[in-house]
Amino acid sequence: MAERPPKLRLFVAADLTAGASVGLDAAQAHYLGTVMRARKGDALALFNGRDGEWRAAIDGFGKGWCSVAVGERLRPQTAEPDLWLVFAPIKRARIDFVAEKATELGVSALWPIFTRHTAVGRVNVERLRANAVEAAEQCERLTVPEIVAPATLDEVLADWPAGRALLVLDESGAGAPAADALADLPPGPAAVLTGPEGGFAKSELDGLRALPFVTHIGLGPRILRADTAALAALACWQAWCGDWRARPALR
Amino acid sequence: MAERPPKLRLFVAADLTAGASVGLDAAQAHYLGTVMRARKGDALALFNGRDGEWRAAIDGFGKGWCSVAVGERLRPQTAEPDLWLVFAPIKRARIDFVAEKATELGVSALWPIFTRHTAVGRVNVERLRANAVEAAEQCERLTVPEIVAPATLDEVLADWPAGRALLVLDESGAGAPAADALADLPPGPAAVLTGPEGGFAKSELDGLRALPFVTHIGLGPRILRADTAALAALACWQAWCGDWRARPALR
């Protein structure tokens, strides 16, 4: 296909096959019709996290709905790196930002957790998901990160899956430099864990250090905000252990 | 010194020596007295980018001023990595964010530039500087990044300093993977160059490719926003070529 892929790109729940008709929800219909001023016949791309990416065309608009005809497949579904971000929630603007950036940086799951010094009492999971969907649509991912139900650090660690490395961002100065820790990491699923603005409690760091799947890493001499540290670590992991040797698919 | 360093930390222009008296400006006096509710005798840390970091104590407040007595030196000035961020300006909230994050990630200079597809017509240099100062105060840096006067990409390239590598973040898929490019980079000063939301023009990329100090790098298969790409590249450079083998000084 020499044609450029459509610029409009939406995540949908429906199965995608050639010739299918997909009904979009009210929010997506509003986005297409009112925000993007799309019209009947306009092209868009659809993905659902399972069936790859498909060319589609707007079939019709109504009040609160939009119907789309699925055309041919643009890209097959492919395996993606398995990297979680497990993070103590921070202020709302910063959590929006983390959801957007972590999605662009290819995390497979976002998991808000509560630690001893976490000041934020609840997490708007729907908002987290909406930010992740929007970022996935924009960055040409074929999936949306899973949003895992918030839990305490103790609960997360008690049920940690076998074979997944946990990289703890440790401001205490006791962590290995990121470059060394990532070079030594065996291939396989991983997770980055970031603490709240007040940092981890000493007892939490000591408890983490005793766990066989944990590596403590340091991100240099400056004290990074929690959101900066999370994104820096995700970028380094993708560059050295993830899929950053691949190129954009549609260019 | 077993004492913990003061939590209040300010960047000042004045020379810092033991026994000196430093006058703070109205904004800093307001921050200390009203925002942070500091009182006469309270401890703070001062740095000026030249003389290291010093313990100080508030000597007195007045209307629009605050006087501070400099005590002993906490840290000597040390050399820092020489990494510029040369970036096409983006929307205001995102540029604030880039200034904050790039400062935490240790850039020595922030240089806004205009490219062919740059949609933003002017840059608020004072605001850029204020964000950089605030981030430097928070992240325990001993310097504030230099804010370089905006210029066009052509002007920047025509006067490029000898010996400084230029890493161009290239969405076209033609760049080397970041891990490989950074492993091959000779030690020395460097700069990361990011384009506007619309990307570089093809002629710009071709022109850059012809320059001996340029390396084109790719950041994987997802299409990153300009701000995400900048921060990801800065983090990778610090981890592999910069000072991320060092630990926080004051912990």
Key traits:
251 residues; 5-stranded mixed β-sheet; homodimer; alpha/beta; Ribosomal Protein L25, Chain P; Alpha/beta knot; 2 domains; 8-stranded parallel β-sheet
- What is the average per-residue confidence, as pLDDT of chain A, rounded to a whole number? 93
How much helix, percentage-wise, in residues of chain A? Answer: 25-40%
Q: By CATH's scheme, which homologous superfamily of the largest domain in chain A applies?
A: SPOUT methyltransferase, trefoil knot domain
Number of strands of chain A: 13
Most extensive chain interface and residues per partner: A-B, 44 and 44 residues
Largest sheet of chain A: 8 strands, parallel
Number of domains of chain A: 2
Q: If classified by CATH, what would the architecture of the largest domain in chain A be?
A: 3-Layer(aba) Sandwich
So what's the overall shape of chain A?
elongated
Low-confidence stretches of chain A: none
Beta-strand residue percentage of chain A: 25-35%
Strand/helix succession of chain A: EEHEEEEHEHEEHEEHEHEH
* First-last Cα distance of chain A: 11 Å
Q: Classify the secondary structure makeup of chain A into a structural class.
A: alpha/beta
